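Budget justification aside, the reviewers requested a transparent look at the raw inputs and outputs of the sequence design task funded under Objective 1. We therefore reproduce one unedited record. The lines immediately below are the structure tokens for a 192-residue chain.
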């Protein structure tokens, strides 16, 4: 596999951000606004996944499991090597895929999972949960309707991570009394 050009990766991330949010105020757009009709609705079985260099190896394992064993469509937001990168870029890219509706769920991975959780949760519409075991995954989905799962590659081994991803993708939100709490969480984002 070829090593991606750093400038190409930065351009791809910038383009993805502009597609999701539009150009930064005062900045010229890298691409003209699309003139075609909006894309068709995304499959409810599409997951966005991304990592920094510390989570790259685990991301590659999980990407294959999700696609080959679980049958979900996978959108890989990068990174694509173990070369040092900044985790907020990839966590934000995954978060934007989910918040925009282009992916039903997202998974972010870095060495500890903490930084990616913080970055992803800055994206309006994202409820990213850093999980370490089956109990935290089940709670995140059933009670908190988490739409992103964060994992620490140095915290959970690949067997546990695979099991946790299976649970994350298979577990439904319980609704009921939890519904009003989710609305309160989302209200903290303020007006959109």
């Amino acid at each position: 596999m070829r090593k991606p050009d750093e400038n190409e990766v930065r351009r791809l991330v910038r383009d993805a951000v502009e597609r999701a949010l539009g150009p930064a105020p005062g900045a010229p757009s890298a691409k003209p606004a699309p003139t075609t009709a909006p894309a068709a609705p995304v499959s409810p079985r599409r997951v966005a996944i991304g990592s920094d260099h510390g989570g790259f190896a685990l991301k590659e394992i999980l990407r294959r499991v999700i696609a080959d064993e679980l049958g979900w469509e996978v959108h890989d937001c990068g990174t694509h090597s173990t070369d040092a990168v900044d985790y907020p870029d990839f966590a934000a890219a995954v978060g934007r895929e989910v918040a925009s509706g282009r992916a039903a769920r997202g998974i972010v991975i870095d060495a500890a999972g903490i930084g990616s959780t913080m970055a992803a949760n800055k994206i309006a519409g994202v409820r990213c949960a850093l999980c370490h075991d089956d109990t935290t995954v089940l709670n995140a989905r059933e009670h908190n309707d988490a739409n992103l799962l964060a994992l620490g590659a140095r915290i959970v081994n690949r067997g546990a991570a695979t099991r946790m991803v299976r649970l994350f993708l298979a577990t439904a939100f319980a609704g009921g009394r939890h519904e009003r709490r989710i609305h309160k969480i989302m209200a903290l984002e303020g007006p959109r």
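Residues 25-38 have pLDDT under 50 and may be disordered. Residues 130 and 140 are 9 Å apart (CA to CA). Computational costs for records of this kind are itemized in the attached budget.
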